[in-house]
Amino acid sequence: MSNDSFDGLVPLREIVSNFDLAAQKSLGQNFLMDMNLTYRIARTAGDLSKINVIEIGPGPGGLTRAILKCGAKKVISIERDERCIDALRYISDEFPDRFQLIHGDALEQDIIKLAPAPRRIMANLPYNVATPLLISWLKRAKEFEGMTLMFQKEVADRLVAKPRTKAYGRLSVMTGWLCEVKCEFNIDPKAFTPAPKVISTVVTLKPRAQPLASASWNAMEHVVATAFGQRRKMLRQSLKPLELDLASLGISETSRAEELEVEDFAKLARAFAEKT
Questions:
Q1: Per-residue pLDDT tens for 238-274?
Q2: Which of 31, 102, 163, 230 ranks highest by number of CB atoms within 10 Å?
Q3: Rounded CA separation 208/226 (Å)
Q4: Is 126 inside a domain boundary?
Q5: In this predicted model, what pLDDT tens digit does every residue of 211-227 receive, in sequence order?
Q6: pTM higher than 0.90 for the full model?
């Protein structure tokens, strides 16, 4: 039996064929067809028996059914592609009390309202909306028990990047400020249909009980974006619009954004908030 049907449900390739689910580039779709991998992703999230899982972009449902088979209390899947809505009815039939399908754009959803805590986000994220979706969730990180997400490897590397490295930037700071981040494993492009041109990485984000340092989201986001907007310039130049006294904050004016720790950015954010 093929590895896209060993769980006793309709093989994924049959679903894709029957409903003419050719992946659409405009929606950033790359369907993960290897059920060994979808189950590995689901198991990475740990015990889901008391967790309400919110899934983004289920496509033909490979990860969806793995999450359900691994015992999630409930799965709420948000799908933008109307073709997939019809195709996913087989999961509704198999798990009528534990699966809810919402037709809509995840960027427009208040996903906190979709399920009570404890809740976890799990998704093979469309490459074209992965970063804005993550930023929107980080703003409310404490509302989630965790996130198990798949990104293209380049983005995953940025999430875990450390200061003084090329990959370190806005996403590294904002994510590390609020979450513990771990790259779990990579997935070869050949596991997808169609095969993307990049390697994918499964990432676990565990919200911190408290941010690494105190600061408001708005001030932190503004300071970090301003600093990295001209990352090659010294801070005295890149942060000039903020009119901050860097020396009084113990931060060298000749440093560059990539040299600062998360705590340094929080210090700058607090100072900026006091001025505005």
A1: 999 999 999 999 999 999 999 999 999 999 999 999 9
A2: 31
A3: 25
A4: yes
A5: 999 999 999 999 999 99
A6: yes
Say how far apart CA 200 and CA 147 lie, in whole Å: 16
Asked if 28 and 116 sit in the same domain, the reply is yes
Query: What is the 3-class SS of the chain, one letter each residue?
Result: CCCCCCCCCCCHHHHHHHCCCCCCHHHCCCEECCHHHHHHHHHHCCCCCCCEEEEECCCCCHHHHHHHHCCCCEEEEEECCHHHHHHCHHHHHHCCCCEEEEECCHHHCCHHHHCCCCEEEEEECCCCCHHHHHHHHHCCHHHCCEEEEEEEHHHHHHHHCCCCCCCCCHHHHHHHHHEEEEEEEEECHHHEECCCCCCEEEEEEEECCCCCCCCCHHHHHHHHHHHHHCCCCEHHHHCHHHCCCCHHHCCCCCCEHHHCCHHHHHHHHHHHHHHC
Q: What is the pLDDT of the chain when averaged over all its residues?
A: 94
Query: How far does the chain reach from its first CA to its final CA, in angstroms?
Result: 63
Same domain as 231, residue 96: no
At a CB cut-off of 8 Å and minimum separation 6, what does 169 contact?
A: 158, 161, 228, 231, 257, 258
Q: How far apart are CA 25 and CA 42, in angstroms?
A: 25
CA Rg, the chain, in Å? 20
Strand partners, 102: 78
